[in-house]
Amino acid sequence: MNQSSMRKKSLYDYQVVIFDLDGTLYYQQPFRLRMIRFLARHVLTHPCCIKDFLIIYKYRKVREKWELYEKRCAQEPRYSALGLEDRQYQYVADQMKTERTRVKKVIAFFMLEMPLRFLPAYRDEILANAIDALHRQHKTVVVYSDYPVEKKLKALGIRADRCYTSADACIGAMKPDPKGIAVILSDTNCPAADALMVGDRYEKDGLAARDNGVDYLIVGKTRKERSAVG
Asked: How far is it, in rounded angstroms, from Cα 101 to Cα 113?
């Protein structure tokens, strides 16, 4: 079900609406099932790629709990010169006893490039239509994700006025760290009271918004749950 902390009647009453991407602008559960089937078939037909599958698994685990792994990295001086993404790639490489370049290549292909062909089938038409309506009302639409944004938005056929990722130099921190939304408020010159964060997880999107004094709307997982959005 939807969960919200909104002081205005609808998302159209806000000047800036910030959307999460993964799990928000497309239905993630059925998409993930399709990707798991694809990866399983790929490993069966290419047994030499089994380590790639394990790299993906480890990378996802590290990304989801990065605040814990970040503390470990902070104790290692060799990580300090790396940006956020490279720190994560290097940490996974160290754990998997491989090279950072291999981790980066595996993630780029299996998580960033190859899934683009499947995304359109899982687009959330309700939120896509809401974004179109926001554009018509001359509201500012922002997409802010922990993962790269532009290619996924293009695949989904969704337009944003501004795009941000946690790895951007101006942010360099993953949700629920409040820095990303703070940067967005500053860049758009928007008071917190006039901004809304729309995401799919309170523990990430909701907390990042709350800690900036920004209202949030956490959408449900299914089309029926999201039918009341707006």
From this structure: 16
pTM of the model: 0.89
Give me 203's structure tokens.
């523990």
Q: Are 130 and 229 in contact (CB under 8 A)?
A: yes
- Give dist(CA 216, CA 91) in Å, integer: 32
10 Å CB burial of residue 216 (0-12, 13-18, 19+) is: buried
Using the CB atoms, write b or e for 115-131: b if 16+ within 10 Å: beeebeebbbebbbebb
Name the one residue in this structure whose structure tokens are 């990430």. Answer: 204
- Separation of alpha carbons 167 and 174, rounded Å: 8
pLDDT in tens, 3-15: 778 999 999 999 9
CA distance 26 to 17: 17
- Taking the CA atoms of residue 131, residue 180, residue 64 and residue 72 in that order, the dihedral angle to the nearest 10 degrees is 170
pLDDT in tens, 112-136: 999 999 999 999 999 999 999 999 9
